[in-house]
Amino acid sequence: LRRRVESGGALSCGGVTESAQAFLAAWLRREFPDSGPARKAEFQLTRLQSGNRSVDDRVRKWQAITADNPDYLASRYELCAARLTQWREAANGSQAAEFGAEVLKAARQYWEAATAKERRVTSDVRVALSALEVLASKPGMDEQEIAYFESRASSLASKLPMDASELVELHYRQFQLARYRSDAVAASREATWLSEHGRGSSFELPALVVVAQDADEAYRKAAPNERREYARKAADAYRRLVDLSGDTPETIRSKTNARVAVSRLAQLRQEVGDYPAAIGALETLLRAYPNDKSYLRRIALAEFQAERWAASLERWRRLVAGLEKGQAEW
User: How many helices (H) and strands (E) in the chain?
Assistant: First the structure.
């Protein structure tokens, strides 16, 4: 090993355990402090040990790697990721702004240090996305900073596979930015893309909310002879939204959006004459709110339309129980 290092030969850690790699890295740093392998070993050792360190300690270690290290670019990537973790953990705390600025600083360092030879598409996009996540959360967004990172990520989008998580997140960040800019057309476009390609991701739900709202709006504006078809499309969008957001009684009671989605689904199914599906959605609402008069009235009407006479009559009897004759509700 000593002869290989002294002769400038390449070293590989393929098949070597992590503990052996750590030993090798420490030995190289001690015996050959100024050699290329030792400098690469410094990076490797920091990476190996990072899993057992606090995020603050990881930041200090990555910061210590200087620009003359062969793995400086990779260290800036790791630093950016660690800074992002700090920022996320700070949430809305007093240090959030400070950590957010450090994410942007590390991302800038990465992009300014990267050469064409060193570039890795997924790493490049991931760093830009880290910066965009921070920028999209700030009130009074810095459009110049956003343009810097958004243009770099967007320029590489075509090189990512369609199922890449980075591509899905990029479209979500563009969706976020479009909404903050009140660009409804761009927001709808990105939401549609996410609903088609972001299934199973954490970004699917907010996109589906917009897709369902857009479909509902199209239904409301449709010509009379087209309303049925548009209602069917809107109902399908709300069905996906309900499936994703959940429809347990606890969810319906605790999440207004979930309750509204189930209610709108019931109404749209009723509009197209799918009374069994409308009844099913209304029963979901009644499991959460068994005494809600509005839901009881709606399900009584749906059961009547479905020619479920006995069930409908029982609902009406329950509704009028206790009411005095002549009252508006009676």
Answer: 17, 0
